[in-house]
Amino acid sequence: MKRRRLGLALGGMVVSTAVFAALWPHAREAGAILSAQDDPAELSDVRINSAVRNNQAIVAQNIEAALAANDADLANSFVELARDRNIPLTDELSRRVTEAVAEENSSSHFAKRFATGLVTGNADDVASLSGTVAGDLFVFGDIRDVVREGKHLAMGEDTDRLVLGLATAGLAVTAATYVSVGGVGPVRAGLTLVKDARKVGRLGEGLAEWTGRSVRQVIDGPVLENAVGSASALRPGKSVSAIRAAFRAEKAGALVRLAKDVGRVGERAGIRAAQDTLRIAENPKDVARAARLAESKGGQTRAILKILGRGALLLAAGAFNLTFWLFGALMALFGFLSSIKATTERLTQSWLDRRKARRLRKQMVVASLAVAAARG
């Protein structure tokens, strides 16, 4: 019976050890993720390390995919990520990325994309955004958008009131940009990016809903409708004055903070990183976290967002699972310590029982000798 109890204790210790060994890697990673949940840069480090461990070729595969999609900026972001984490890349792959980046940044390409951004107001790279921002800084771009959406509104057609409101806010911010000699430039660029993302369908649904509510608070609807009726891209002076009157600066704090955070992402990590952020963000807090990530990771930001998505910014889901891994490891450790305690107690009790039995046998021998001596 005693041997059976000792065997059960030893078996429990072995099983607990095996379970703890199996759970420990998951528990360690879960603990690191939970500890880093308030720091986007640290959180992305933990999750990128895990992704690379699970797939050593993930960086090279994404570079190939980016090159195939003619996205040299994303390919170069992965090269920066590989360089930072000492992930080896072939010379041939590095050369292809360098050539693609050089082609994208060539003078002819830049001029063409700049003109496209200036005329259409759509931006998908640095050059076209430069044109878009230039158009908005000279009020041409915002007035163009106001006139276009205002015409739809006047004719009872489908109107993108979010673009209309962002263009109105942009006109007010542009005036502030000139007054501050570019001091609110990131806000101006951020509003342009949000507006562009909306126009081309790259603004996340949750963020679009929040921005729509914010714009409705910031813009005086009736005043704006009257202003857009007479707005014209050919009469920018009168149009700007009339449209700016609809902007409620005292209620624009949240919208301005969003635009500023978008601008910070663009400054630190590039225009396309800002666009990627707007696509995956569900609310302004996500954008603020992306700005912190961009300030820490710079050019690597797009690669990180590509691999992790919104998971690079926060624990979007799975906190219960992470806690479960930690709880499981703690329970296995508790079982191991309990088994050690039980094994120690049973071994000690067995040793004491044997010692007691030996002492009893000695006493019996002594008694037997004493009895024999008495009889003799």
Mean pLDDT: 76
Count of helices? 18
- Order of helices and strands, N to C? HHHHHHHHHHHHHHHHHH
Instruction: Tell me the number of strands.
Output: 0
**Uncertain regions: pLDDT < 50 for 5+ in a row?**
none
Span of the ends, CA to CA: 43 Å
Q: Could you tell me the strand content as a percent range? A: under 5%
> Main beta sheet, described?
none
* Class from secondary-structure proportions: mainly alpha
Shape: elongated
- Give Rg in angstroms: 34 Å
Oligomer: single chain
Q: Please bin the fraction of helical residues.
A: over 70%
Which key phrases capture this entry?
single chain; mainly alpha; 376 residues; 18 helices
Describe this structure in words.
The chain is mainly α and 376 residues long. The chain is built from 18 helices and no strands. It has helices at 2-35, 40-54, 58-68, 72-84, 91-104, 107-120, 126-137, 140-154, 161-179, 185-199, 205-218, 221-230, 236-244, 253-269, 271-280, 284-297, 301-308, 319-375. Helix 14 (253-269) crosses helix 15. The two termini are 43 Å apart. The model has no long low-confidence stretch (mean pLDDT 76).
